[in-house]
Amino acid sequence: MHNLFHNQNDGSGLSPIPAPSSNPGNLLGYEYVPEGLKPGAPLVVVLHGCGQDAAGYDRGAGWSRLAERHGFALLFPEQQRSNNAMNCFNWFTANDSQRGMGEAASIKAMIDAMAKRHGTDRGRIFVTGLSAGGAMASVMLATYPELFAGGAIIAGIAYGCAADVGRAFDCMGGRARQDAAELAAQIRRASPHKGPWPRISVWQGTADSTVEPGNADSIVLQWASVHGLDPKPAKVDQVEGYPHRTWLGADGKPLIEQYLITGMDHGTPLMPGTEEGESGVAGAHMLDAAISSTDRIAAFWGIAPPVAEKSRHRRPAEAPKPKRPRDRRSQAPSFADNSIQKTIEQALQAAGLLKG
Description:
By secondary structure, this protein is α/β, with parallel strands linked by helices. The protein has one domain: Alpha/Beta hydrolase fold, catalytic domain (Rossmann fold, 3-Layer(aba) Sandwich). The protein has helices at residues 54-61, 63-70, 102-118, 132-143, 165-172, 180-190, 214-227, 293-301, 340-350, and strands spanning 15-16, 28-32, 43-47, 73-78, 125-130, 150-154, 199-205, 235-239, 242-248, 254-261, 268-270, 286-288. It has a ten-stranded mixed sheet, sandwiched between helices. The protein is globular. Mean pLDDT is 85; it is low at 1-11, 316-345 and 347-356.
């Protein structure tokens, strides 16, 4: 009998999972498996942001509600404060962002165990996350691309942008730009995989004061180059009043999409409600933007039906905070004391993610 990460269900609807045989990243794990799940169902891996936990992110984003409606399993890796003082996945450390190492290897082991335990479809595994979870989704898609049919990165960072804390803040601030060839090379070096590559959905608020919005373009460039696509989108339109761009494969099907949520700050865009096609609960960094990223990501992956537009006249997203200048060197935290924990806390306080 396997040991459990936790002794009991925490009341959120998520259940603790048996610890995998290998857990070098020392992560926790939860699952949501609808009653009567059919063999061969899809599996979605959901990665929370800094200061969040698995249950809180699920409550906000509404993934378990969607899984119940459409019949797929969910895996929620969870960070521990012993690994990162702010509960951020360590997407920016070399030991945790490489194939076969640290947190990336722990998540991969959890996926393997989930697929075996519940008989999920190995050809329909997906990963998504917000902020540090979005950056960690980039890590998983790059280091284990053979595992994933698709991914979704919300307010995240392109893979390979950082290998230490200082560089991570340069990435977040938009000061670590690379061209498409360099970005693609990062992914190609991350694993021996030769394709096919996962389909990618990218979401970004245009008034994000924590992750500079240009990071979304870097993610798109990275994956467009890996897929061998023109950096110019094949289709530009609006969805619920927001800019939406699509890159198509040779068969005419979308391989990459990008949503820019006008006026939205740092968080996951939601359309809270009780009707079909409306998932999630608004809260800190879980933002009522009158568009459900959860529902639309699942539809993009093909594990939920298309979402009909509710109205051409959307409600405004959360009022944007004053934008920081693109070059935020003067606002970057000091690294003189060599304290990683203090540095992370200072940065998160500056970003409004942690109270002083």
